[in-house]
């Protein structure tokens, strides 16, 4: 009969694993409950998102240590980007927006659901704003699936300047920050609502954005609590909702619009992505998804329609190769469309209020 692992044997073994700060894992107080099911051991290490990279080696060592115990059939250790709920809430309350006095407008690019091309649109709109002569930053707040490192082919890590301040990484003249720069792609991370907010707070507050006309925030897809809180806390001057023409996506897009309405963020407009298909051989346009749905919906809802972007190989290829079409083929129809959409967004912002100052919390 093989030995059965117990919590005690697992904990005893984990005492030999050290955190980057030199503490043993048990004393460090970052261990979750240990679950043992049919000889398989599961637990999490709660770490600040910025330290996730440093903790990846610790996670692996913890897994290997537990797997080596007699009777253990398997071990799964995940990093959870965690902070004490109260702490995260306090951080969020301490007003997202502190320290970004040089940023004139923060806008969100959002979608009611994933996979509609939100990040591709956010990147190309940012570069469109830049091509129109503005100073622009792009914050990839899509902590669940950060795409900016891939879309802009950035593999370097941001530099730490001064006390806990990160320098944004500049690419094609665009200043960017992404949780993907800080965490290895394969690092398993579980994000909890309050943590998403505090990660966003840090990326807004603790990054040396400098003087910007617009900071574009690529939001996590969906309309859950985390998105709602972010929309509420990030002092947004406006939001752009990306949708595909299919009905389902439009239902989701409507949820997105509703979310911004609830938190009094003006919707600058809807972008219809993958709207129609242009045959690369003959140039014929086919409305495979019933193009025009978003425009009709926008009209019905009294929201500006910012434009329709075709489903096109060139957009996908350039996007996935880290050379967005606005910079790699500025003379193309697509690049022109993105610049026009960017211009409409900027015009819509002209009337909007600039970023509010910090909300001071007295405890
Ligand atoms: N107009 C377009 N034409 C062709 N391909 C596109 C277009 N827009 C986006 N894509 C492609 O669709 C895929 C999904 O796009 P993207 O990652 O921007 O979506 P997303 O909505 O941000 O997704 P997620 O919800 O996963 O973050 C990518 O491969 C991208 O290159």
TrEMBL record:
Keywords: ATP-binding, Hydrolase, Iron, Iron-sulfur, Metal-binding, Nucleotide-binding
Lineage: superkingdom: Bacteria
Residue ranges of domain MIP18 family-like in the record: 7-77
SUPFAM superfamilies per the UniProt record, alphabetical: Fe-S cluster assembly (FSCA) domain-like, P-loop containing nucleoside triphosphate hydrolases
The keyword Acetylation is assigned to this record: no
One GO BP annotation of this record: iron-sulfur cluster assembly
InterPro entries: FSCA_dom_sf, MIP18-like, Mrp-like_CS, Mrp/NBP35_ATP-bd, NUBPL-like, P-loop_NTPase, YlxH/NBP35
One MF term in the entry's GO annotations: ATP binding
Family annotation (Pfam families): FeS_assembly_P, ParA
Positions annotated to bind ATP: 112-119
Function description: Binds and transfers iron-sulfur (Fe-S) clusters to target apoproteins. Can hydrolyze ATP.
NCBIfam families recorded: PRK11670.1
Family designation: In the C-terminal section; belongs to the Mrp/NBP35 ATP-binding proteins family. Belongs to the Mrp/NBP35 ATP-binding proteins family.
Subunit structure: Homodimer.
Protein name listed in UniProt: Iron-sulfur cluster carrier protein
């Amino acid at each position: 009969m093989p030995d059965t692992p117990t919590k005690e044997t697992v904990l005893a073994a984990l005492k030999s694993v050290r955190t980057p700060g030199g503490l043993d894992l048990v004393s460090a107080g970052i261990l979750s409950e240990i679950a043992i099911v049919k000889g398989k051991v599961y637990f999490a290490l709660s770490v600040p998102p910025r330290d996730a990279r440093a903790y990846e080696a610790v996670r692996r060592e913890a897994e290997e240590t537990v797997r080596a115990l007699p009777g253990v059939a398997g071990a799964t250790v995940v990093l959870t980007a965690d902070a004490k709920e109260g702490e995260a809430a306090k951080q969020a309350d301490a007003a997202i927006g502190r320290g970004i006095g040089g940023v004139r407008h923060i806008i969100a690019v959002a979608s009611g659901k994933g996979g509609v091309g939100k990040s591709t649109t956010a990147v190309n709109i940012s570069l469109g704003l830049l091509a129109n002569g503005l100073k622009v930053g792009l914050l990839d707040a899509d902590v669940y699936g950060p795409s900016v490192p891939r879309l802009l082919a950035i593999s370097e890590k941001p530099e730490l300047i001064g006390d806990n301040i990160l320098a944004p990484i500049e690419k094609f003249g665009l200043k960017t920050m992404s949780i993907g720069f800080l965490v290895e792609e394969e690092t398993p991370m579980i994000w909890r609502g309050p943590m998403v907010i505090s990660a966003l707070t840090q990326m807004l507050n603790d990054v040396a954005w400098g003087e910007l006309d617009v900071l574009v925030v690529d939001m996590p897809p969906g309309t859950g609590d985390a998105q709602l809180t972010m929309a509420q806390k990030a002092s947004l001057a406006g939001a752009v909702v990306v949708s595909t023409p299919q009905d389902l996506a439009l239902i989701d897009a409507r949820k997105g619009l509703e979310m911004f309405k609830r938190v009094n963020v003006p919707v600058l407009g809807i972008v219809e992505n993958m709207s129609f298909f242009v045959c690369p051989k003959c140039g014929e346009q086919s409305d495979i998804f019933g193009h025009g749905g978003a425009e009709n919906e926008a009209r019905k809802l009294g929201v500006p329609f910012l434009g329709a972007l075709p489903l096109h190989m060139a957009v996908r290829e350039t996007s996935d190769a880290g050379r967005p079409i606005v910079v790699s083929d500025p003379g193309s129809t697509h690049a022109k469309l993105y610049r026009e959409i960017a211009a409409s967004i900027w015009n819509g912002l002209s009337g909007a209020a600039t970023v509010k100052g910090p909300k001071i919390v007295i405890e």
